[in-house]
Amino acid sequence: MANPTQIYSRDTKWRKGVIRTLVSELFLHGRLTTTLTRAKELRRHAEKLITKAKNPTLANRRIAASFLRTIVNNESKKDVLKILFEEIAPSYMNRNGGYTRIYKLVSRAGDNAPMAIIELVKGEKVKTSKMEKTSKDNDTKISTPKTSKSKKDAKVTK
């Protein structure tokens, strides 16, 4: 692979801007189709940010915020930084690297550029039960919903 500072034969601002945007979109969507060279460069930056997000200190959050674009997901209304620190990083707590996977595709028709899909590897899903949520809130308790019999059920049970 080429020297990362000379990749794409472009100037520094363009290169950093493209990488920042691609990393943000990868965290937002979980999968991207791009050229193989961009995917390899994207993997370097994405894995470093996920590793930093696994230790959610204020300094690491600021480092990630300075790198990522402020893109908001339309469905969940969460920004990329929140998705990285609250959803992606906790699922990789037991994994020491290798958070992304690159699949090679056929070359692009127009310029014969090698294409690839880069995606986040499925991590362990973090499940928080209702009991854990209430244990964090020491004062609140789980209330079980009261089941009331409807008129039909009342007639049947007579």
Task: Please characterize this protein's 3D structure.
The structure is a single chain. This protein is mostly helical. It has a single domain, classed as Ribosomal protein L17 (50s Ribosomal Protein L17, Chain: A), CATH 3.90.1030. Helix content is 45%, strand content 10%. The chain has six helices and three strands. It has a three-stranded antiparallel sheet with strand order 1-3-2, covered by helices on one side. Helix 1 crosses helix 2. It is globular, with a radius of gyration of 23 Å. The model has no long low-confidence stretch (mean pLDDT 80). One of its GO terms (molecular function) is structural constituent of ribosome. InterPro entries: Ribosomal_bL17, Ribosomal_bL17_CS, Ribosomal_bL17_sf. Keywords: Ribonucleoprotein, Ribosomal protein. Part of the 50S ribosomal subunit. Contacts protein L32. Belongs to the bacterial ribosomal protein bL17 family.
